Automatic annotation (TrEMBL):
Keywords per UniProt: Coiled coil, Exocytosis, Transport
GO biological process, one term: exocytosis
Protein name: Exocyst complex component 5
Cited PANTHER family: EXOCYST COMPLEX COMPONENT 5, SEC10
InterPro entries noted in UniProt: Sec10-like, Sec10_HB, Sec10_N
Segments forming domain Exocyst complex component Sec10 N-terminal: 52-160
GO cellular component: exocyst
Exocyst complex component Sec10-like alpha-helical bundle domain span: 332-650
Family membership: Belongs to the SEC10 family.
Coiled coil: 63-101
Length: 651
């Protein structure tokens, strides 16, 4: 039997005992080595005779050694297990301590956040208080300066640099304009001399400014013209500045044989530059066109017709027709080249077709008719006669006058895509409301006592209700179309003024503006419309219309912002723009509108916040309730949206 090839039970036991040795243990190889090392342990064919007793003895000794080794290793294992259990307990204890520390830190973080919010509120409040203190202080300083300048006029000697330095004509104009307003409030007997001096200086500066404007126009310096025009805006001579501009624009303008084409080219040229000079370009251009028609063209037409008025009637009529056709053609050319609403006859040109004088006369005559009816009618005929008078009043006041004005006003509302549209329907609304209040007052004061106890009362009330519903329907339609036109005007402003580079500037470190030009112009337009709505309506109607306009305004800005990609600095500029839009929203005094813009402002923060803080910002108070798709749509507008880091943090 070959012990090197046969696996014995002892070898299996050795394998079990030595399984924990550092190196892999193979029992067969171990026994093989042991047999060959033992004298007499080889096969019968070896050099030394096989000695089983000696081999057995060697096996027994090795088994004992292995048992000792096994016990030693077992003790080591037990020691390691105990050490491991001890370290596990210590680790668990440390984890519990860290969890407690984390809870304490989180609680401190919440307290710190609340404290920061409290401090921020206090800072804002303090800022408001400082502003409240600083504003009167600034006014006091300004008043002190004005008193100093006023004293110079009292003394008769102007020493201040603002009056003696010709380069400070702008500052001098501001001072003299304020002093002129103050002087108008002073009694003439005590301050006649100083009032005269201030008025003289006012006139001199006004003349200097107009002369400076004239010189700048001759030199073609648009920026200087704009600067001087802005100063003159607060002077009485501002209209004279416009007249000078119109006069100089026409110098050398009529060089062709076709005066109508010359006029069209002139209007087109002025239209391109007038917006860069005056704050009211439409009014200036309209005055130019009026000047061209009433002076130049009227004189030309008169001269052309005078030649054949008495001598040749047929030629006179032919010339009249040709000239009329050429005025009409000129209007079309001007409209095409300037986008001014000179166009179709449906344009009301600001006429409301409502006359309070006519209304008062109608109501006065109706009042007298009711009084005569009361005195002269038999009691049985009184309700019927009063009803007939009321019917006539409804026919001529409500239908012939108010309803006609509403229909004409509706037809005159421009389409929502019209540019520079003049919105006169709100003027119609204002006057129609005033007239109807007078009508309603007469109904209650003079008609009701005559029919209150008769069946005619229900007929009158029904007729009045029908009239009101018809008018309200047309008013609602007109207001809705007017609001659409307002939004259309804002769209035109944004499309013309907003540039892609506004929100993704080429030089991130050289952005000097606080908000974009498009934002400024939209805010100016919105504030004008809000003021017009407040002046045109009363009661809850104001809030209803302003809320509708505010919601549409918010939707427009929201969709507009979705069209651009934003760099970090561009995102900051977008936030500034929305902050300005939010200031406009405050003028509405409608909580819902302000809330919409607050939320939009919070959404814009997603354009600039660090990727690590995106989830925290999205879970904030203002954004937590929004759909995730809305949040994602704003994050997608970031120029760095495709970066793996941003995508990972927002996923």
């Amino acid at each position: 039997m070959d012990y090197a090839r046969e696996r014995s039970p002892c070898a299996a036991r050795i394998h079990r005992r030595c399984s924990l040795l550092p190196e892999p243990f193979v029992a067969d190889e171990y026994i093989e080595r042991l047999v060959w090392r033992t004298p007499g342990g080889g096969s019968r064919g070896g050099s030394e005779a096989f000695d089983p007793k000696r081999l057995l003895e060697e096996f027994v000794n090795h088994i004992q050694e292995l048992q000792i080794m096994d016990e030693r290793i077992q003790r080591k294992v037990e020691k390691l297990e105990q050490q491991c259990q001890k370290e596990a307990k210590e680790f668990a204890k440390k984890v519990q301590e860290l969890q407690k520390s984390n809870q304490v830190a989180f609680q401190h973080f919440q307290e710190l956040d609340e404290h920061i919010s409290y401090v921020a509120t206090k800072v804002c409040h303090l800022g408001d208080q400082l502003e409240g203190v600083n504003t009167p202080r600034q006014r006091a300083v300004e008043a002190q300066k004005l008193m100093k300048y006023f004293n110079e006029f009292l003394d008769g000697e102007l020493k201040s640099d603002v009056f003696t330095n010709s380069e400070k004509i702008k500052e001098a104009a501001d001072v003299i304009q304020k002093l002129h307003l103050i002087a108008q409030e002073l009694p003439f007997d005590r301050f006649s001399e100083v009032k005269s001096k201030i008025a003289s200086k006012y006139h001199d500066l006004e003349c200097q400014l107009i002369q400076e404007f004239t010189s700048a126009q001759r030199r073609g310096e648009i920026s200087r013209m704009r600067e001087v025009a802005a100063v003159l805006l607060h002077f009485k001579g501002y209209s004279h500045c416009i007249d000078v501009y119109i006069k100089q624009c026409q110098e050398g303008a009529y060089m062709r044989n076709d005066i109508f084409e010359d006029a069209a080219i002139l209007c087109q040229r002025v239209n391109k530059q007038v917006g860069d000079i005056f704050s009211n370009p439409e009014a200036v251009l309209a005055k130019l066109i009026q000047n061209v028609f009433e002076i130049k063209l009227q004189s030309f037409v008169k001269d052309q017709l005078e030649e054949c008025r008495k001598s040749d009637a047929e030629q006179y009529l032919k010339s009249l027709y040709d000239l009329y056709t050429s005025i009409q053609d000129l209007k079309e050319r001007i409209r095409q080249r300037t986008n001014l609403p000179l166009g179709p006859s449906i344009d009301t040109h600001g006429e409301t077709f409502l006359s309070q004088e006519v209304v008062v006369n109608l109501l006065q005559e109706t009042k007298q008719a009711f009084e005569r009816c009361h005195r002269l009618s038999d009691p049985s005929d009184l309700p019927r006669n009063a009803f007939r008078i009321f019917t006539i009043l409804v026919e001529f006041l409500c239908i012939e006058h108010i309803d006609y004005a509403l229909e004409t006003g509706l037809a005159g509302i421009p389409s929502s895509d019209s540019r520079n549209a003049n919105l006169y329907f709100l003027d119609v609304v204002q006057q129609a409301n005033t007239i109807f209040h007078l009508f309603d007052k007469q109904f209650n004061d003079h008609l009701m006592p005559l029919i209150s106890s008769s069946p005619k009362l229900s007929e009158c009330l029904q007729k009045k209700k029908e009239i009101i519903e018809q008018m309200e329907m047309k008013l609602d339609t007109g207001i809705d179309r007017t609001l659409n036109c307002m939004i259309g005007q804002m769209k035109h402003i944004l499309a013309a003024e907003q540039k892609k580079t506004d929100f993704k500037p080429e030089d991130e470190n050289n952005v000097l503006i606080q908000y974009t030009n498009a934002c400024v112009k939209v805010c100016v337009y919105v504030r004008k419309q809000v003021e017009k709505i407040k002046n045109s309506m009363d009661g809850k109607n104001v809030d209803t219309v302003l809320m509708e306009l505010g919601v549409r305004f918010h939707r427009l800005i929201y969709e507009h912002l979705q069209q651009y990609s934003y760099s970090c600095m561009g995102g900051m500029l977008a936030i500034c723009d929305v902050a300005e839009y939010r200031k406009c929203a405050k003028d509405f005094k409608i909580p819902m509108v302000l809330h919409l813009f607050d939320t939009l402002h919070a959404l814009c923060n997603l354009l600039v916040v660090a990727p690590d803080n995106l989830k925290q910002v999205c879970s904030g108070e203002q954004l937590a309730s929004l759909d995730k798709n809305i949040l994602h749509s704003f994050v997608q507008l970031r120029a760095d949206y495709r970066s793996a880091r941003l995508a990972r943090h927002f996923s």
